[in-house]
Amino acid sequence: MSAPDWWSIEVMDVEDGAVHTATGWRDAYAQVLAESLITNGASSWRWFEHSWGVVLEVAFTREEMWAGWLALPGTQATLEAVPDSVRGLFVHRGHGGSSGAYVPRPPRIDPRADRVGLPEPLVS
Predict the structure, then answer these.
(1) Backbone angles phi, psi at 10, to 5 degrees
(2) What is the topology classification, in CATH, of domain 21-97?
């Protein structure tokens, strides 16, 4: 079995977030999406909540399976129901969110740091 390819569906909140939110969309359609993912061969999926909306990450073992699931009328209907389907919906390959990394990146050392002189130790 080959390694799964991850795909992301990012749903952003709208400006009038009091009425329509990405979290509300997820709550309304998560079960429908999960059922269609199971019946169409998804190997895994995960929901992530962010300050700006939600991300559904989906893994399929073959790209054709992803394309087939995405083209289903039920999947298309749920994507059309997001709070802002014009500016608030992103569908792309790879992990979603801000950086896609699950562990924090180590701090980078400034390349000039080795040029700074260290203070001399005090001799008593």
Answers:
(1) -105, 130
(2) Alpha-Beta Plaits (3.30.70)
Determine how β-strand 53-60 pairs with β-strand 89-93: unpaired
Torsion of CA 54, 93, 58, 50, to 10 degrees: -20
Q: How far is CA 85 from CA 61, 117, 118, in A?
A: 27, 55, 56
**CA-based Rg of the chain, rounded to a whole angstrom?**
21
Answering whether pTM is above 0.85, one says no
Report the first-to-last Cα separation within the chain, whole angstroms: 68
For residue 99, give every residue at least 6 positions away whose Cβ sits within 8 Å of its Cβ, in sequence order, or none: 105
* Model pLDDT for residues 27-65, shown as the tens digit of each residue: 999 999 999 999 999 999 999 999 889 999 999 999 999
What does each C-alpha distance from 65 to 19, 61, 90, 122 come to in angstroms? Answer: 34, 7, 19, 68
Domain assignments of the chain as residue spans, ordered by start: 21-97
Tell me the one-letter amino acid at 89: L
